C-alpha cells in the first residue's frame, strides 16, 4: 500500500520537485550576480581606501616637516572599515608647523567623502590664513554650505612656532589634546566652540599655550578613548592619560587594551615633540608704521600663549603701539607723543630710555601673573 | 575699522566698528574726515563695537571735539567697552567728553 501512490500525487510530486529545481537554479544565478556586485563594491572600496590613504601625508612629507630635527612628528590613522572619517594633515612653513586633526560624524563612505573635502579645505585655507582661527572659519563657512545631511566635523587646528614653543590653536568640538612632560600629562584648556558644518558664520575663539623642550603634544580622535575591549569596557580618558604619561608605543598600548576586540571606530594619533630648547621671542622690524601690525601680532601671540589675561594684553598692545609711534615721530615732539608716553607709563611697570652707541634704546617691563 | 553713519534729524549716530589705531588714522583718513565733516551736528559716537583704541585714536576724538566746539555741534560717547574705557580714563579723556 505504502508504495502505490495515486497518480495525481505522483504528478504533483514531480511538479514540486521541478519547481524546486528551477527555484534553486534562479537563486544560484541571483547569488552569483550578488557575489559579482559584492566583489565590485569591495574592489571599489579597496581603491577608495588607497585614495584616502594617498590623501594623507606620507613618510617623506613627515620627514620634511621635521626639518633639522627640532621636532619629532608621528602620525597614524587606522580606519575601522576600508574608508573612514578621521583625518589629519600638516605643513611646515619655516619655523612654524601647522596641523589639523579631525573626526567626521558617521562612518564609511559618506564620512570619507566629507573627510577628503575637509583635508583639501585645510590645505587651501592654509595658503591664505594667518591664524588657526582664520583657517577654522574658512573651513566652517564652506562645510556649512549645502550640508543637507548635517554631517559635521570636530577638529583641532594648531600652529606651533617651533623655536619659542608658542602653540596657537583653535578647537571645534574636538577632544582635548594632552601634553606629555616626562611621566606626567596635562590637558589643554579648551573653549567650547561648535563643530564645523553647522553654522557658517560662527566666530571661533583662538587660544594659546606653551610647548616646552622635550614636551610632546598628543592629538587623537575619540576612537582612542572610546576603544572597547572584549568585555565591552571602554578605555576612557583616565586610562588614556596614564598611557600617554607612561608608554612610548601609544597604538601598541591601545591594542593591548582592546585585546583582539573588533574596533568600533577609526583610530587616529598625531604626536608632536619639541626637541629644541625654548628660545625667547625676538622680532626685528624696519622702523616703519606699517610694521606695527606685525609687532602687534607678536605681542598678542606671546600674551595668549603665556596665559596673560585679555585685559592686560590689550593694554600691553596699546603700550607697544605708543612706543613704536613715538620712535617714528621722535623728531616731532608733538602733543600726541606726550599723550602716548603718558599712556605707556600708566600701563607698564618700568620704562627706561637710553642712548647708547648711536642707538635709541627704549625698554619697557611689564610683569603679569599666569 | 568700519564706520556706519546713521543720519537722524535730532542726533546723527556714528558707529565705530573695530579698532582705532595708528594704522587706521593713517590709512583711513577720508572715512574719518567724513565724521569730522558732521561736527556741526549733534552726534552720538556709538562705541559698542569699538574694540581697541590708542593715542592715535584719542587724537581723532580730540579733533572731533575741537571741530564740534567751533561749529556749535554736540558730542556724546556711548557704549564704551571696558578696555577702551580704561584708555579714556588713563589719558584723562574721561573729563573732556560726555560719556554715557
Question: How is this structure best summarized?
Answer:
The complex is a heterodimer of chains A (370) and B (100). Chain A has helices at residues 7-55, 59-65, 108-128, 132-144, 222-225, 236-246, 250-258, 292-305, 310-328, 335-347; strands at 71-78, 86-93, 96-104, 153-161, 166-172, 178-181, 184-187, 206-210, 216-220, 267-274, 350-356, 359-365. Chain A is an alpha+beta fold.
Tell me the CATH architecture of the largest domain in chain A.
Answer: 4-Layer Sandwich
Assign an overall shape of chain B.
Answer: globular
Number of domains of chain B: 1
Tally of contiguous helical segments of chain B: 4
Based on secondary structure, the structural category of chain A is alpha+beta
The counted number of beta strands of chain B is 5
CATH architecture of chain B: 2-Layer Sandwich
Fill in the CATH topology of chain B.
Transcription Regulator spoIIAA
Q: How would you state the average pLDDT of chain A, rounded?
A: 89
What value does the Rg of chain B take, in angstroms?
12 Å
Structural class by sheet pairing and helices of chain B: alpha/beta
Query: What is the level 1 CATH name of the largest domain in chain A?
Result: Alpha Beta
Beta content of chain B? 25-35%
- What would you report as the Rg of chain A, rounded to the nearest angstrom? 30 Å
Poorly predicted ranges of chain B (pLDDT <50, ≥5 residues)? none
Describe this structure as you would to a colleague.
The complex is a heterodimer of chains A (370) and B (100). Chain A is of the alpha+beta class and 370 residues long. Chain A has 10 helices and 12 strands. Chain A has helices at 7-55, 59-65, 108-128, 132-144, 222-225, 236-246, 250-258, 292-305, 310-328, 335-347; strands spanning 71-78, 86-93, 96-104, 153-161, 166-172, 178-181, 184-187, 206-210, 216-220, 267-274, 350-356, 359-365. Chain A has a 5-stranded antiparallel beta sheet with strand order 1-10-9-6-7. A 5-stranded antiparallel beta sheet of chain A has the order 2-3-4-5-8, with helices on both faces. Chain A has a two-stranded antiparallel sheet with strand order 11-12. In chain B, strands 1, 2, 3, 4 and 5 form a 5-stranded mixed beta sheet that branches. Chain B starts with a strand and ends in a 10-residue tail after the last helix. Chain B has a single domain (2-95), classed as STAS domain (Transcription Regulator spoIIAA). In chain B, 40% of the residues lie in helices and 28% in strands. Chain B is α/β, with parallel strands linked by helices. Chain B has 4 helices and 5 strands, in the order E-E-H-H-E-E-H-E-H. Chain A binds chain B through residues 289-290, 292-293, 311, 314-315, 317-318, 321-322, 325, 336, 339-340, 342-343, 346-347, and chain B through 21-23, 26, 52-56, 58-59, 82-83, 86-87, 90-91.
Amino acid at each position: 500500500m505504502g508504495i502505490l501512490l495515486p497518480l495525481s500525487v505522483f504528478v504533483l510530486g514531480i511538479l514540486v520537485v521541478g519547481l524546486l529545481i528551477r527555484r534553486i537554479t534562479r537563486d544560484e544565478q541571483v547569488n552569483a550576480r550578488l557575489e559579482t556586485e559584492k566583489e565590485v563594491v569591495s574592489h571599489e572600496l579597496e581603491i577608495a581606501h588607497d585614495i584616502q590613504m594617498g590623501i594623507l601625508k606620507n613618510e617623506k612629507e613627515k620627514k620634511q616637516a621635521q626639518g633639522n630635527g627640532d621636532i619629532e612628528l608621528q602620525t597614524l590613522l587606522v580606519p575601522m572599515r576600508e574608508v573612514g572619517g578621521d583625518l589629519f594633515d600638516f605643513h611646515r612653513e619655516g619655523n612654524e608647523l601647522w596641523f589639523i586633526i579631525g573626526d567626521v560624524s558617521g562612518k564609511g563612505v559618506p564620512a570619507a567623502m566629507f573627510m577628503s573635502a575637509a583635508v583639501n579645505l585645510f590645505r587651501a585655507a592654509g595658503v591664505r590664513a594667518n591664524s588657526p582661527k582664520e583657517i577654522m572659519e574658512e573651513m566652517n563657512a564652506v562645510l556649512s554650505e549645502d550640508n543637507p545631511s548635517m554631517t559635521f566635523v570636530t577638529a583641532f587646528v594648531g600652529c606651533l612656532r617651533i623655536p619659542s614653543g608658542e602653540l596657537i590653536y583653535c578647537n571645534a568640538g574636538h577632544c582635548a589634546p594632552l601634553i606629555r612632560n616626562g611621566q606626567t600629562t596635562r590637558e589643554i584648556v579648551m573653549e567650547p566652540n561648535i563643530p564645523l558644518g553647522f553654522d557658517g558664520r560662527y566666530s571661533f575663539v583662538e587660544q594659546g599655550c606653551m610647548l616646552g623642550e622635550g614636551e610632546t603634544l598628543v592629538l587623537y580622535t575619540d576612537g582612542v578613548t572610546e576603544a572597547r575591549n572584549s568585555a565591552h569596557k571602554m578605555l576612557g580618558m583616565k586610562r588614556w592619560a596614564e598611557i600617554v604619561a607612561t608608554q612610548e608605543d601609544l597604538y601598541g598600548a591601545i591594542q593591548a587594551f582592546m585585546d583582539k576586540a573588533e574596533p568600533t571606530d577609526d583610530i587616529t594619533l598625531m604626536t608632536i615633540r619639541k626637541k629644541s630648547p625654548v628660545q625667547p621671542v625676538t622680532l626685528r622690524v624696519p622702523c616703519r608704521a606699517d610694521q606695527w601690525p606685525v609687532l602687534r601680532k607678536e605681542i598678542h601671540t606671546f600674551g595668549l600663549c603665556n596665559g596673560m589675561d585679555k585685559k592686560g594684553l590689550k593694554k600691553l598692545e596699546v603700550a607697544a603701539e605708543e612706543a613704536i609711534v613715538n620712535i617714528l615721530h621722535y623728531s616731532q615732539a608733538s602733543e600726541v607723543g606726550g599723550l602716548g608716553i603718558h599712556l605707556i607709563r600708566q600701563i607698564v611697570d618700568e620704562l627706561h630710555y637710553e642712548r647708547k652707541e648711536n642707538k635709541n634704546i627704549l625698554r619697557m617691563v611689564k610683569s603679569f601673573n599666569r | 575699522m568700519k564706520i556706519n553713519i546713521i543720519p537722524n534729524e535730532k542726533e546723527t549716530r556714528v558707529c565705530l566698528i573695530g579698532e582705532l589705531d595708528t594704522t587706521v588714522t593713517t590709512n583711513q583718513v577720508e572715512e574719518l574726515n567724513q565724521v569730522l565733516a558732521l561736527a556741526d551736528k549733534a552726534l552720538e559716537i556709538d562705541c559698542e563695537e569699538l574694540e581697541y583704541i590708542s593715542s592715535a585714536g584719542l587724537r581723532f576724538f580730540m579733533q572731533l571735539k575741537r571741530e564740534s566746539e567751533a561749529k556749535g555741534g554736540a558730542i556724546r560717547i556711548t557704549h564704551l567697552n571696558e578696555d577702551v574705557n580704561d584708555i579714556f580714563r588713563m589719558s584723562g579723556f574721561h573729563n573732556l567728553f560726555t560719556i554715557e
